[in-house]
Write a structure and sequence with these properties.
This protein is about 35% helix and about 20% strand. It has about 775 residues and is an alpha/beta fold.
């Protein structure tokens, strides 16, 4: 207690504070109430639009302590970005402190308000759900101010129950008592509910009539558990969309799930009950445990334990270098895990890369016929949020898919935008970004923009974000590629409102901007493909870049991509494209006979060999590329690891998996100078790969040697570019940097050489971070005028 309260009469002053940041839906008003009451202050707190406003009266020392502790002791889910202080009308002393009804008066609110992300089940609520004596025992929708749905139920700001999808569930007397009790952790917890007044589970099968619910509540849960125990596949309504679940130890169930998803080989994520279960399946560092158990509760990619993963059926993550594991995000997931008694595959409720389903009727129509039943509930989902995916690289937590638990938390723009803008991202792993002032809200992952349903999901999510934030963008930023659906969407805007941003510049800007860097960096942009400023397809580039401009300094050697985009799905064709038409920097002439023999071997594995070869040699429908991702594809195909990919990046995943745990000397590599650019001679490394294979080297040895060569060559390219420019801050961005072995090796080497090496952490290095990079570039260019 402050000294003011212990020393007799003091001067009473009144102050007004406006607290900005993530301060709604995170228990901030109850925290303010408790703190003010402890310090003997009078006044009130309320939500207004997207901020929290406080009027308080008391002694000067008590008010100073109050403000200090607002920052220092804020609830764990809160993130204060600023406190604006001013005077207010006198508040009568000794009248106590109260929480007032929220106001939607946006005229007195800041121009930007943040939406809280959903938070995973907290320990206190978990204990209640598992306690037979508690009134919320086995209740799937238990939550409090420290956990539960937020972004997925919000209709509007300020964040109050009446502006959420919980509005249709009036509080019972006992929940209302908790809601109004300052000493209770559910004090003003907007989604608070119990079995008496809250949402209820339902079980339906497609054989029933559309409105015929076969079981409700505990009965619905028991039927779902019986189906899981019998090797079934069920659809479950999660926080941000429907999911498909099955027993991760049951080979038949996993195989059936793969058929339902049309996903023959891409690894599935596995949910387990606690950290002990994680440790049984994978090697886990303290940093990874923190990531697993934090409020975002993402899927975390971990090194599997061979003995542990034998508990899972091999079909869960065939030949993957890492295993995706996560902990229960909701009480419902906990109850399903407990009841099943084994790990569960939990994957998004969609087909292939379509958007995750959030509508109940659509789930029954699209998923119901394919699985054994739908475990739903009657709380509407307002926004589509898939599960997030993360990992730890070089002791740094990094997000690979930014969705539930992270989005829509705002990121800072190092150069504020003078006009509101919308960045539409690229094509794959799509996100959008809404930017206003110094804030950028990266929307959740919506999948690949491969069809109109994905484009519709983008439109709906972007419109919702603009409505809640009351922002109308004046500028749209987009990729250079004219065939991306996101670019086509941008053409609906007037020409003077559109800003095109080069793909790899956006990658590098996404990394620099999230670290607050506005000056020049050496950007190592390694990915699959992106349209370059010269009209060719890039993907293995080193750029001298800032947030406004860039200049290309280095690249990978070029090759032809026979058949165009189709070659991405057929790594064997990329191998042919390199061997038949790879850029001649000296490496391809090393042994023409060996290359000819390799082409003959490809002919036996590729039915359309002659056609593909003609395309590569003529350049017809075979665009020129300089891509790190496609080079990894070619190497995987030459080692017989992946001729035809069933998901994006599969060849590179298998190549990394083959190298795991293997020490090897690097394959030969060579750097040449062409037209003022440093160029990695890809053919030197590929022909060495072929030669060592003929000499009897094993596939794991060669996979490891290939990784070592690319890592060393990358470090040398950076050194030469640094010598030319004097720049020693390096940003690594692009989808290839999801390769754990390559990333660790390059960071280790460059850091040892004294470079400052930055990687994407809060936004993905893959194309999921492109929209944030576009927004940062557009903001910087607009600020420059």
């Amino acid at each position: 207690m402050s000294s003011d309260l212990a020393s007799g009469p003091v001067t009473v002053v009144a102050r007004h504070w406006q607290v900005r940041g993530i301060v709604q839906g995170v228990g901030f008003r109850p925290f303010v109430h408790r703190l003010a009451t402890e310090l003997g202050l009078s006044g009130s707190v309320r939500n207004r639009a997207g901020v929290v406003e406080i009027d308080a009266a008391g002694g000067p020392e008590a008010l100073r302590e109050f403000r200090t502790r607002l920052w220092a002791e804020a609830p764990p889910l809160a993130a204060i970005t600023g406190i604006v202080e001013g005077e207010c009308a006198p508040v009568p002393a000794g009248t106590g402190f109260s929480i007032l009804a929220s106001s939607d008066d946006h005229d007195r609110a800041p121009e930007f308000a943040e939406i809280p992300a959903d938070a995973a089940l907290c320990d206190a609520c978990r204990a209640e759900v598992l306690d037979p004596a508690d009134r919320r025992h086995r209740y799937p929708f238990t939550n409090c101010t420290d956990c539960g749905p937020r972004a997925t139920i919000i209709d509007d700001l300020p964040y109050d129950r009446a502006r959420t999808s919980m509005a249709g569930f009036p509080l019972c007397s006992r929940c209302r008592a908790e809601y109004l009790d300052p000493a209770d952790r559910r004090f003003h917890a907007e989604p608070v509910a119990c079995p008496t007044c809250g949402p209820q589970l339902t079980w339906q099968t497609v054989s029933a009539a559309p409105d015929d619910v076969e079981a409700v509540g505990a009965g619905a849960l028991e039927i779902a558990l019986r189906q899981l125990g019998a090797g079934g596949v069920i659809a479950v309504k999660g926080l941000g969309g429907y999911q498909l679940l099955c027993d991760a130890t049951h080979a038949g169930a996993v195989a059936r799930l793969r058929a339902i998803k049309r996903r023959p080989h891409k690894p599935f994520a596995v949910m387990v009950e606690d950290l002990a279960a994680v440790r049984a399946l994978a090697r886990v560092t303290p940093a990874e445990e923190n990531l697993l158990s934090g409020p975002a509760r993402p899927i975390v990619l971990l090194l599997p334990r061979p003995a542990g993963t034998r508990r899972l059926t091999p079909g869960v993550a065939p030949n993957a270098p890492r295993l995706g594991l996560f902990l229960p995000t909701t009480p419902l997931h906990l109850l399903l895990l407990r009841g099943a008694g084994r790990p569960l595959v939990v994957t998004s409720g969609n087909i292939a890369d379509a958007p995750i389903i959030i509508d109940d009727g659509r789930a029954l129509d699209r998923l119901g016929p394919r699985c054994d039943g739908v475990l739903a509930h009657d709380r509407p989902i307002r926004a589509r949020f898939d599960d997030s995916v993360a990992r730890v690289v070089h002791d740094r937590p990094t997000v690979i898919r930014r969705a539930r638990g992270y989005a829509p938390e705002a990121l800072d723009l190092p150069i504020p935008t003078p006009q509101p803008l919308l960045a539409l991202g690229a094509q794959l792993k799509h996100t959008f970004t809404l930017a206003v002032g110094g804030h950028a809200v990266v929307g959740p992952h919506t999948g690949d923009l491969s069809d109109l349903s994905a484009l519709q999901a983008l439109d709906e999510a972007a419109e919702r974000m603009q409505r809640i934030h009351r922002v109308r963008p004046e500028i749209v930023a987009h990729d250079l590629h004219p065939d991306y659906l996101s670019t086509k969407a941008a053409t609906l805007w007037a020409a003077d409102q559109r800003m095109a941003v080069q793909h790899h510049h956006a990658h590098i800007a996404s990394c620099a901007a999230e670290h607050g860097v506005t000056g020049s960096v050496l950007g190592v942009a390694y990915d699959g493909l992106g349209l370059g400023s010269d009209g060719t397809l890039w993907g293995g580039e080193i750029l001298l870049a800032d947030l406004r401009t860039f200049r290309r300094l280095a690249r990978f050697g070029t090759a032809r991509m026979p058949g165009g985009q189709a070659a991405v799905r057929h790594p064997l064709r990329m191998a042919l494209g390199y061997l038949a038409a790879g850029e001649d920097l000296g490496g391809r002439s090393a042994d023409p006979a060996m290359i000819a023999n390799a082409l003959t071997g490809i002919a036996e594995r590729e039915p359309q060999h002659d056609t593909i070869l003609r395309l590569a040699l003529s350049g017809t429908h075979a665009p020129l590329i300089s891509s790190a991702g496609r080079l990894f594809d070619a190497a995987a195909a030459l080692l017989g690891l992946c001729d035809h990919a069933t998901y994006e990046g599969e060849a590179a995943v298998l190549l990394e998996a083959a190298s795991q745990g293997v020490l090897a000397d690097p394959l030969p590599w060579r750097i040449a100078k062409r037209e003022d650019l440093w160029v990695l001679d890809c053919m030197t490394t590929l022909t060495a790969l072929l030669a060592h294979r003929l000499d009897g080297a094993t596939v794991p040895e060669l996979a490891a040697a290939f990784h070592e060569a690319i890592a060393l060559a990358t470090a040398e390219l950076v050194r030469r570019c640094a010598a030319d420019t004097g720049v020693r801050t390096v940003c690594l961005s692009g989808g290839v940097w999801q390769n754990h072995r390559l990333t660790e090796a390059v960071i280790g080497t460059l850091t040892g050489d004294g470079y400052r090496v930055l990687i994407n952490q809060r936004v993905p290095a893959n194309d999921g971070g492109i929209s944030f990079g576009q927004a940062a570039i557009a903001a910087a260019r607009l600020a420059e005028g």
